[in-house]
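queue> pop job 88
queue> type: inverse folding (structure -> sequence)
queue> payload:
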């Protein structure tokens, strides 16, 4: 059994949950450890989020980031208190970080010395890879420490409320003649070419049909495509128009990101929502994810009560504790 699997099935997990509940009943029984968030700490956290997500923050978002930062710090401190840093993957990471700091020495440092170098520089607490691994490992442990029951009624209710998530979209074959705007084509060019255009199902006529326009790099025939797949090729506006076309006739000129097209849709398969039994596994997984998320939020709120949280920043209105 791996070290991580042992962790996730260890008996202490029950005490982790019960300990938080016990503390909520006797809040003054012990002195609480401190979580202190300074202005500098928050700005570093916020700026890292902005760089990663490439978007600016708002006061509401900054409040959520502050709440998230406090929760992560509580989880981090608890993970260290439980000695999760002894997991092999963390020890290997510390050795790797220590090797980057290696000084010129006639004798190569051993593993313990490399780890100590990383620890002396505070990399156990500050390295984002280590923090993310410890926090996510403890989150999984907290969720798995409590058995989740999913009833049939819950499954049926979720399916009824989210049927659109399981909709199989309509599909169709299309044949199109392309007119490149780079070659000077206009809607009138395509409309003129439509006159006398025969059925593309007569294979011997297809080359003559396509020769009325220009060569399209992805071809002139697309089979079994849904709206999103067509949008990925031609653009969303074009795909939405194709969705409304009458099968078995040439369309009026349609504009895409590339130029103008005459489109012949055929073999339309209507959209369908599969019965619950066909998507049961997916529905159960979604229900479980929702319950696990709710459980984790409850567990983290209990955990935060075990700390004295001091937020010393110019934060937006709201409480992080």
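queue> result:
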């Amino acid at each position: 059994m791996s070290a991580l699997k042992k962790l996730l099935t260890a008996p202490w997990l029950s005490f982790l949950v019960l300990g938080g509940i016990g503390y909520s009943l006797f809040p003054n029984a012990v002195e609480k450890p401190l979580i202190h968030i300074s202005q500098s700490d928050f700005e570093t956290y916020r700026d890292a989020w902005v760089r990663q997500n490439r978007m600016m923050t708002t006061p509401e978002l900054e409040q959520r980031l502050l709440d998230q930062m406090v929760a992560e710090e509580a989880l981090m401190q608890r993970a260290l208190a439980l000695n999760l840093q002894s997991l092999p993957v963390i020890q290997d990471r510390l050795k790797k970080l220590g090797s980057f700091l290696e000084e010129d020495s006639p004798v190569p440092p051993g593993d313990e010395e490399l780890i100590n170098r990383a620890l002396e520089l505070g990399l156990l607490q500050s390295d984002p890879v280590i923090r993310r691994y410890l926090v996510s490992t403890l989150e999984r442990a907290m969720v798995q420490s409590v058995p989740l029951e999913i009833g049939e009624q819950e499954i049926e209710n979720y399916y009824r409320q989210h049927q659109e998530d399981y909709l199989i979209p309509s599909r169709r074959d299309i044949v199109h003649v392309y007119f490149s705007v780079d070659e000077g084509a206009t809607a009138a060019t395509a409309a003129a070419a439509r006159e006398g255009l025969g059925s593309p199902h007569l294979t011997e006529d297809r080359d003559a049909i396509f020769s009325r326009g220009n060569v399209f790099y992805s071809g002139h025939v697309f089979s079994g495509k849904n709206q999103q797949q067509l949008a990925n090729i031609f653009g969303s506006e074009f795909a939405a128009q194709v969705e409304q076309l009458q099968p078995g006739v040439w369309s009026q000129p349609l504009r895409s990101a590339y130029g103008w097209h005459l489109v012949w849709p055929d073999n339309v398969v209507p959209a369908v929502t599969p019965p619950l039994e066909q998507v049961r596994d997916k529905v159960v997984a979604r229900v479980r994810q929702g319950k696990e998320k709710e459980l984790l939020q409850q567990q983290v709120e209990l955990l935060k009560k075990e700390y004295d949280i001091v937020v010393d920043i110019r934060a937006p209105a709201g409480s992080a504790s």
